[in-house]
TrEMBL record:
GO terms for molecular function: copper ion binding. This is Tyrosinase. Belongs to the melC1 family. Keywords: Copper, Signal. Residues 1-32 form the signal peptide. Residues 32-67 are annotated as: Disordered. Gene3D superfamilies: protein ne1242 domain like. It comes from the Bacteria. Pfam families: MelC1. One of its GO terms (biological process) is melanin biosynthetic process. PROSITE patterns: TAT.
Amino acid sequence: MPELSRRHALTAAAVLATAAGVPAVTALTASAAGPAPHHDLPPFDEVYKGRRIQGGPPSGGGHHHHGGGYAVFVDGVELHVMRNADGSWISVVSHYDPVPTPRAAARAAVDELQGAELLPFPAN
């Protein structure tokens, strides 16, 4: 019996999805919509390991293009954050360690900085 090729596997998956009908289409549409919008994220302001971390809707004047409407600060210095397609968050400090929320991104940055000062990120 010949081995199953990728093309045959994808064809079989398409046939099964078609047989399943509307629920499969609904599931695909929901997953393609991406993560929930940022406006449902609560603001935060706390001291974490002796550092003040804050987050919330931007107050204008900053560079919030990657955070998409959510600003995060460590000791008053903006921490550039970005939301991934899967809904996780990364920062310029902990870029390869996705976390579930902007607050977790701020905490991860404080952990990574190990007491060092966060320097402003130059705008392009």
